[in-house]
Amino acid sequence: MYKMMTPGPTMVAENVRLARSVETGNPDIDTEFFDFYKGTCELYSELLHTKNESLILSGEGILGLEAAVASLTEAGDRVLVLDNGVFGKGFADFVSLYGGEPVLYTTDYRYEIAIDPLREYIEKDHDFKYATVVHCDTPSGMLNDISKICPLLKEYGILTVVDSVSGMMGNPVDVDKDEIDILCGGSQKAISCPIGLTLVTISDAAKKVMEDRRTRIPSFYANLTVFKNYYENKWFPYSMPISDIYGLKIALDNIKADKDILKRHAEVAAKTRKALTASGLHLYGENGYSNTVTVFKVPDGVKSEDIITHMRDDHNILIAGSFDVMEGEVIRLGHMGYNCTADNMRETLSALNDVLIKLGVKLIKALSYD
Ligand SMILES: *Cc1c(COP(=O)(O)O)cnc(C)c1O
Q1: Among 198, 195, 209, 211, which Cα is nearest to 168's?
Q2: Nearest CA to ligand 1 atom 3
Q3: What is the three-class DSSP state of 69?
Q4: Domain of 340?
Q5: Same domain, 298 and 215
Q6: What is the average pLDDT value for the chain, to the nearest integer?
Q7: Could you tell me the distance, in angstroms and rounded to a whole number, from the CA of residue 16 to the centre of ligand 1?
Q8: Rounded to whole angstroms, what are the CA distances from 274 to 271, 279, 296, 322, 349?
Q9: Is the CB–ligand 1 distance for residue 60 below 6 Å?
Q10: To the nearest whole percent, how much of the chain has pLDDT over 70?
């Protein structure tokens, strides 16, 4: 097995792996499973500081994003798409797919979304049914300040859909305080489960918009209203992936018990950035650094592929390049969830130091974590 220091999927704790292997019943008939499912959803809501209902959907992180858009959008709806990254822009495709009119607010991908210019823009035009915001845009490691963006949009009556798949559990999230209507998460990032589940928290305001639609939601799997009263009726819209959810529950218990989790992410991320810049490497972003992933520019004269391959073959460590407009330009180091320890980063940076030297990169100082 490789040491996975990619920005998701992460390594998975042993107690999560064991929980996924226990004997399973029939989740459609076993009424205890309805309590287990609901309890796991409530624990997730608690970790995100919200009284809103959460749902676990059977599907990878992208399903949560699509379900939020499918459930809210009707033909002709104007949707504000905040675009300062690849996932940010990607929301526009879902909005069009479901008949909405995406209006892109595009800013430089190297900077977090600045609040004052956004406010000026919204003052002039706020006729939007909802807005999409990416908390941590993983391909660039850009963190947007949802605690300022979402309340600002709410002031103008705009609902918010936040993709926090790679942001949550490593960066602070307070759904109720920040008035976030739908927050999307995924199992394989800082939650530290294998790939397979997506989670959404849904505000009452968002539920009302779904109920007041003039037209039907043109999807079943991506329709969030099909879960209505599942607990009272003891009826899931489809059979739940029971082993995945057993693992998720333990992963959430691990997070709840880990009182220093956010502090550790902040510290590991800060030290990683410091080590990279001290050695003369350049971070991709100018501000807005996520505590879950660090992204730096590929030094001149080397190929990102070569760095990744040597890290894997010589040191048994997986790190990632990026894609879309950043393809080949940057390297991404994941330090999220179960991966996020000083020891893991120390080992990763020391290996990276060897690889860069081997590839002929002149560092002004050896890369070291401390
Ligand atoms: C990982 C991730 C997702 C889920 O999609 P993938 O298929 O795993 O890429 C969605 N949004 C963000 C910001 C992510 O980092």
Answers
A1: 198
A2: 61
A3: helix
A4: 259-358
A5: no
A6: 97
A7: 21
A8: 5, 9, 12, 21, 11
A9: yes
A10: 100
